[in-house]
Queue: 2 jobs
Job 1
Amino acid sequence: MYTQSFNVPDSTDGSTLKVVPPAASAHEEALQTQFDARIDADGKIEPREWMPEAYRKTLVRQISQHAHSEIVGMLPEGNWISRAPSLKRKAILIAKVQDEGGHGLYLYSAAETLGTSRDQMLDALHTGKAKYSSIFNYPTLNWADVGVIGWLVDGAAIMNQIPLCRCSYGPYARAMIRVCKEESFHQRQGYEALLVMMQGTTEQKAMVQDAVNRWWWKCLAMFGPPDADSPNSVQGMRWGIKRISNDDLRQKFVDATVPQAKVLGVTLPDPDLKWNEERQAHDYGQIDWDEFWATVNGNGPCNKERLGTRVKAWNDGAWVRDAALAHAHKQQARQMKEAA
Ligand code: 3HC
């Protein structure tokens, strides 16, 4: 359904680029020129290379938010592992939730190459200073929600993440290649689970439609604010971190999902959704941005529960981290003694 080969334009209107502090010395100016040339040539920036501080900060912000989203994203579905309707569905769901944990680890590792420690990033999450995706602050009320998260939430995530495989920062781009392959499986398993439910009883079909109704608008908002209200987009695109704008990705997602909904036999809950022949794209209705920002700012239905669960897991796991460290120190001491 989704491929890794989007042909995307890199051009952007540079009129609202953030103010980047001027280079401090002739040497730094030369490094900046080299950096700009590499970005212009669509090359990769690697961890040990010089980069502007603002580029480093933007990457740490985006990659750590992304990592947090992956590990907080384990929670709404993890709730359903013990209630999966069959052994097959349980095995698939366990594998998927485990994959999300792995994605978080690749991404924390990528962010660490920029000089920020994992402890610092987790502290920012646990104290509510760091953001994670709005979408994980909504409840999973029944089994159909698990299928819809696969189909729509992971579908939206892939749409956003495929262009990140071409991100200018090497470790992030390389992590995203594997993440996208796994997300693609996640999306398909969700869609397949829904296809099965849609061949079931009237109640099962109603569960799927109800879940689609509740998740559709939240998924559209996942792509972030409209381009005109997105403070980070223009600079992110200039640096080759972001490749496609929030609105363009949202449009691609709508256009890809409409035919999938038709095959599934569900209605997308938007009376304004219709094909626009002139634009060769679907028009769609208004997203509730007030509700989105309330959720991003900590007041969604499950924000407190999600953060509370993460903090508890961190505190409960302290003895494991302490034991692993003590073991590593003991081994190191033994090796040094043997080498002496
Ligand atoms: N939820 C929470 N915050 C959001 C958001 C969302 N859905 N969309 C945007 N924001 C935040 C931004 O982080 C930014 O806040 P900040 O300046 O304090 O950091 C603010 O809203 C303004 O948005 P911008 O459009 O200016 O921000 P960006 O240019 O960073 O674009 C983004 C936002 C498109 C989410 C981009 O950061 C991105 O592509 N991130 C990487 C992918 C990612 O994090 N995806 C999250 C979902 S991962 C996932 O779903 C897991 C999977 O297993 C399902």
Note: Residues 61-62, 65-66, 69-70, 73, 100, 131, 133-134, 153-154, 157, 160-161, 222, 224-225, 230-233, 236, 242, 246, 296 surround 3-hydroxybutanoyl-coenzyme A (CB under 6 Å).
Job 2
Amino acid sequence: MSSAETSRSIDTVMREERLFPPPEAFSHRAHFKSLDEYEVVWEAAAADPPAFWEKLAREELHWFEPFTETLRWNEPQSQPFVAEWFVGGKTNACYNCVDKHVAEGRGDKVAILWEGEPGDSLSLTYAELQTEVSKFANALKSLGVVPGDRVSIYMPMTPELAIAMLACARIGAVHSVIFAGFSAEAIADRNNDAGTKVMLTADGAWRRGKALALKETVDEALAKSATVEHCVVLKRTGQEVPWTEGRDHWWHDLMQEASADCPATPMDSEAPLFILYTSGSTGKPKGIKHTTAGYNLYAKKTYEWVFDYQEDDVYWCTADCGWITGHSYLVYGPMAAGATCVMYEGAPNHPAEDRFWEIIEKYKVSVFYTAPTAIRAFIKWGDEHVDKHDLSSLRLLGSVGEGINPEAWMWYHTKIGGERCPIVDTWWQTETGGIMMSPLPGAIAAKPGSCTKPLPGVIPKIVDEQGAEVGADQGGMLTVAHPWPGMLRGLWGDDDRYKEVYWSKVPGKYLAGDNARCDSDGYYWIMGRIDDVLNVSGHRLSTIEIESALVSHPAVAEAAAVGRPHELKGEAVAVFVTLKDAEPTDELRKELKLHVRKEIGALAQPDDIRFTNSLPKTRSGKIMRRLLRDIAAGKELVGDTSTVEDYAALAKLRDDEE
Ligand code: 6R9
């Protein structure tokens, strides 16, 4: 490869040849049964995306008023970069997720199977959910909430959290869910940015047996949130809470007075449904804006396709609602499909490391969706926790949030899936609203570590710095060529940043911010965020490939690779490693360096290996490589750290020297 080529594409150092075709018994009753079938649908959708989505929108959503125009999108280069879908129509996301099922005679089907951390549980049918949601919608109305008002939600993973989201949708209020672990500062920033009118919280939240003081944190935030008029408090832990008369209201008091009669408000297709803040690489978090009809349709169809929805499924997504995965694949997608969803309040290792497997056995979960960070933790905790439980109800497994290292994939496949369950490695973002690339489990053979192929209606293109498409196996920037219904409709109150981040670098295409390559079979491999690429002696290396090589060593639980400045090479590879049982010795350090060299070549051999007990992660489990880069370079930590899950881990790393 010439140096001109290496300078604009990213070198692939890792090869993964294993192929796992869908089991026949699975394909037999799947939505998509063969690669041919998928290809026919994908080609037809790509030839005319609006026609493809129009048909689905008319069939799958309930319309108070039908739409008159499928897509309003000024061809690229022109303004305003915001697509409008199903223009002129009126629908309601809560109606589609709840009332539609009751109206169609499925009211007795269980919607939520909830498991509290201390072991309490609750099940709600779609009809019961309709009553609860209607009552809480009336409660919000009684506090003066009208369509378009913003409601911030800072609650534990209780059924009331889902009820609150749906109640907002029911009356056209815009929810902003804030992960119930963020600081008062982070809550206040988000409230002020959104102009929140009403705040929903709980007295406390259970986390590993301890009660976190949510209301106290919220009070601190509200002292700096001038727009908030009311605060509703769910009683969960029963702890003492500070109280402001007139502003604060108990959830149960409002519910007691609320009538269960609250028809869903017909909303414009493009009425904002929610804002969800996500960390930018620097500076303040971005308020990703999603709207009603397109998002709802996209969440529903992608849920049905990717998780191969069957009427008798018991589906469990372990994500918190403070993350987009909790929005699209715990609430809006599965509920629009009418699925039975397990919802769990607490930590995966409370009271013991087998809690997830216990829940799968208890509820006979058939489809399980979690994140690589959790999978790597399970591997570290040991197989004995898995072996205690009967996981034979499982038929399909999913992964989201980061690339799944091939070795973690293999463990998930054999240990959890009993070698019979397909795995869907789903690539998508807060911005995309729903899954963009993933195997369709009955149709597309998996390659461990690849999110495989785009869903119907999604047209990815990998481009170089000049915006030209790159060839097979050449890494480049991942973009999407045509609008899709689930895409973001902007950043709340910041059009300039929206244009700058997503539309300025590559004209006319949505810039995802990830690097990727597509192999000669048309399989996509995500190589990490654009700003995470390492440049070693002119070779651009992907973080995920180096990390996967490390994770394939039996001593390694997790690894994060970053670049640090190096006089000769430009950048040197620095890695942070957590171990399974092994001792962190110099011997092992040498062995790991050689292991990477053997697996992927001398180019990628790490210069530094630092052992640590844990890696700094975002709340959704993504390794914060940006911060590790600063640590590796010996710099002070700057920028937004509000999304770091465990600041202590970070501080410790900074203070530890190799
Ligand atoms: C859903 C979600 C988005 C970023 C995305 C990418 C990474 C997500 C991935 C993946 C490789 C996958 N990512 N899924 N990378 N393989 N299957 O995670 O949304 O929190 O906005 O993060 O996560 O880097 O750009 P969000």
Note: The domain at 3-92+271-528 is CATH 3.40.50.12780 (Rossmann fold).
